[in-house]
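From the methods appendix. Each design record in this collection lists the tokenized structure first, followed by the designed amino acid sequence. Records were kept in a plain field format so they could be parsed without special tools. The example shown here is representative of the layout used throughout.

RECORD:
FOLD TOKENS (151 positions):
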């Protein structure tokens, strides 16, 4: 569900007599509660977004995701430059840009992050061998979140 549609729903709830609205679509599930509560959106990739119901003009911001145990290995971390959805390949049937054991050069494309329906190629910021892929294909990522561990 795009932000314009979400804003329209928030406006409708705030201007009406209803106190709660829940909509389920193919893109996910949205629940809006009036009265100082929050708006929650659950996308298929289990990404949640929140925005104050009292201020419908405010943009939705990503909720903190529960992170798994940190990587035990040491090395250079390639971090996400943006919030979005992590993909290892350009399309579902294509080969991954980079996998564990691959040698990568600085500037080489190693993954894609989709943000607002734009596919952004993420490049290695250092030379090295990929020791670990820290994010699953299709998982939501946050700004600064480690994606790869290079050795």
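DESIGN:
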């Amino acid at each position: 569900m795009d932000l314009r549609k979400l804003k329209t729903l928030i406006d409708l709830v705030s201007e009406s007599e209803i106190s709660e609205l829940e909509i389920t679509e193919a893109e996910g599930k949205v629940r809006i509660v009036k009265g100082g509560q929050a708006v929650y959106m659950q996308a298929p990739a289990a990404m949640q977004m929140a925005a104050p119901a009292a201020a419908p003009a405010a943009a939705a911001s990503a909720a903190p995701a529960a992170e798994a145990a940190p990587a035990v290995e040491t090395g250079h971390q390639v971090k996400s430059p943006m919030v979005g959805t992590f993909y290892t390949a350009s399309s579902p049937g294509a080969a991954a840009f980079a996998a564990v054991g691959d040698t990568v050069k600085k500037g080489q494309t190693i993954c894609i992050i989709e943000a607002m329906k734009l596919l952004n190629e993420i490049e290695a910021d250092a030379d090295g061998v990929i020791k670990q892929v820290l994010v699953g294909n299709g998982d939501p990522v946050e700004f600064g979140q480690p994606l790869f561990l290079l050795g």
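APPENDIX NOTE: The longest strand covers residues 109-115.
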